[in-house]
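It is worth pausing here to work through a concrete case rather than discussing structure prediction in the abstract. The textbook approach is simple: state the sequence, then state the predicted structure, then interpret. We follow exactly that order.
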Amino acid sequence: MRKTRATVWILVVIAGGKLEGIASKFNVGKLDLASGSGLFVKEIGSGPPVIVLHGGPGAQHDYLLPAFGRLADEFHLHFYDQRGGGRSQISDPHKIEWRDHVADLEVLRKEWGIDHLLLVGYSWGGLLALLHAAEYPSNVKALILVAPAAGWGDYHRRFKEELGRRGRSEAVHRMRAELEASGLRHSDPALYKQRRFDLNVAGYYMNPEDAYGSETFVVQMQAQQATWASLRGHGPELKSRLQRLQVPTLILHGRHDPIPLEWPKELASVLPDARLVVLEHSAHVPYAEEAEETFGQIRRFLREYTK
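Step two, the predicted structure:
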């Protein structure tokens, strides 16, 4: 039997932005899995349940907050650190496969007592949502894919190449030089470390300077590499399954995303019931770059399936 352990209920008030003054109940704990590993889970808000899947693989959910927390005024949001990342570490992260992530989500669905999932997946989390829906189509009510990672073709390679090119751009080079000349390395080491992180993710933004103040995260590289390696050669099967997937899907993709726009266009053409919305003023972080439009689209779509 699967059991929940170390569960702590905390009543908190989230400060900042539109969440200020909203009292929310968090359920934070470790969920034991059949494999003996554990997943760190967090719940916020009240209303119809919505599962939010972070990017990576090998990252954690924290960086999606407080941004996605604005939906907590209307929905019961379920977050978790996926296997091998954040506070869901395992002893052999280099053995993680995409099937493990899919199976973990199915375990969580049952533990949470949700018959039909409403999945919001960001970046790799969008691809995970598709993989899960392909495996368990009758358990998914609707999908929202925000800047989804590519599941086949050469799009992932092109994404990495474009991201590398942006990281070597004149604008980022100038920002790095300004940081090193600022003296922050000695006067404020914590801020210097934050700025270094911001520069590392600047290529994800349409305007590199918008990366300043990004929510930080750490990627467990063994977990990431192992997951991507397990997906090699799976693209044709995934595409075939998605062509038969009768699940309403909203795809949100920034026009300036380093993931080529051809990918979400192809994905929308493959899925029988999908709608693509291109966000004109964002790249790979539309929930920060174009927050009002992004969450307006998400909220309207979720309402259609929670009436």
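Step three, interpretation. The radius of gyration is 19 Å. The first strand starts at residue 4 and ends at 14.
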